[in-house]
Amino acid sequence: MAEIILNDQNFENEVLKSEVPVLVDFWAPWCGPCKMMGPIVEEVAKELEGQPVKVAKLNVDEAAATAEKYNVMSIPTFKIFKGGQVVDEFVGIQNKEEIKNRLEKAKK
Amino acid sequence: MYDLIIVGSGPAGLTAAIYAARRALKVLVLGKETGGQAVYASKVENYPGLGLVPGFELMQKIAEQAKTVGAEIIATEAKEILKDGEKFEIKDKDGEVFEGRAVILAFGAVPRKLGIPDEDRFKGCGISYCATCDAPFYKNKVVAVVGGGNAALDAAILLSKFAKKVYLIHRRDGFRAEEARINEIKSLSNVEIVLSSEVKGLGGDKKICSLAVESVSGGEKREVEVNGVFVEIGHIVESDFVKKLVALDENQQIIINQKNETNFSGVFAAGDATTVPYKQIVIAAGEGAKAALSAYAYLQKTKINK
């Protein structure tokens, strides 16, 4: 599963109207820890191929309105959306297993 | 069974991994955050040979090099280290056990927290330990920076470019930073310097909206309205999990000698987690190399003795 690249236009369709839980990685190119997380989130996406979840990235510079709407004040921030609502969120560097566990929980 | 297990994956741990793997040791690196604190540096300008490089890019390269020469890196947190006969057993946060014949402790330091109520609750909602990451979210907002060293002044200088007002709050009556930075801070019209004062509390519902600031002498109290707080009050070594194994100094740093040996045979240490003076990327890397060579010598010796 490839990561979905989000912007202010496709956020509603890809995330809020998604039938499955969506992990959104809020990041920016000027944020070191975000760049370290990049390949880890990519691996999560690959390893969850075929499962009823989506993995998406949102560049806070390019989708500033959405980042602001969801009160992102610190990056990297991860939010899991389900049925249009935020069901889980965590801030800072995470390991792959932690992210997968949290997504697993959101599936239930 | 590994020859060498390195706890920590910053400059010290990864450089130790490169040196050890190149001596044909079977090496495992256990690290919470690959790259360590250096990842948070927007730019590194004093690593020889590289000119100006973003911290994460430098660390990515070093991690890549460690893997290329044969080190295995697992992202996890070591929680307990025990000696069982000839081998060390390292248990991680999930209870998994890794076995090695020698250990290098290179787990670095973490940002010191303010230590006040609600600090964790506001993480990501107004409390930040990384000005480089989060400054752009505070365009035309009011923020406070807590601290008085180079890192605090750098954060305040960066934030002054985004925020409409920056309070720089420090508990001493003067800064402990480079003169050039102090002069720059004083020249910035939107930075208000608040000395001899401490942050005692955070106010707000979902996001921070105010700070309770109190003068160190206890006399004066004020409520400052802010949208965010940047904490830059130094780092601490989280060495509790090894305190039964190795000797620590009064700052919880691991005591080492010139060969990076701890008081426990077979356990070496390197980088910011140790008593080595000057916490710098290039120094941590050099210390990692020394620790790896000492560990190699130790392993050679124990092999012969068998």
Provide a descriptive summary of the structure in words.
- The complex is a heterodimer of chains A (108) and B (306).
- Chain A is α/β, with parallel strands linked by helices.
- Helices cover 37% and strands 26% of the residues of chain A.
- Chain A has a five-stranded mixed β-sheet with strand order 1-3-2-4-5.
- In chain A, strand 4 and strand 5 form a beta hairpin.
- Chain B is an alpha/beta fold and 306 residues long.
- Chain B has helices spanning 11-22, 55-68, 131-134, 150-160, 179-187, 281-305; strands spanning 2-7, 27-31, 72-75, 78-84, 87-92, 97-105, 110-111, 127-128, 142-146, 165-169, 191-194, 197-203, 210-215, 221-225, 228-231, 235-236, 267-269.
- In chain B, the strands form four sheets. In chain B, strands 1, 2, 3, 4, 5, 6 and 17 form a seven-stranded mixed β-sheet that branches.
- In chain B, strand 12 (197-203) and strand 13 (210-215) form a beta hairpin.
- In chain B, helix 1 runs parallel beside helix 2 (55-68), helix 1 (11-22) packs across helix 6 and helix 4 runs parallel beside helix 5 (179-187).
- Chain B is elongated and about 65 Å long.
- The two termini of chain B are 17 Å apart.
- The model of chain B has no long low-confidence stretch (mean pLDDT 94).
- Classes of the chains: A alpha/beta (108), B alpha/beta (306).
- The A-B interface holds A 28, 30-36, 40, 60-61, 71-77, 89, 91-93, 95-97 and B 32-35, 39-42, 54-57, 59-60, 75-76, 94, 123-128, 130, 132-134, 136-137, 206-207, 228.
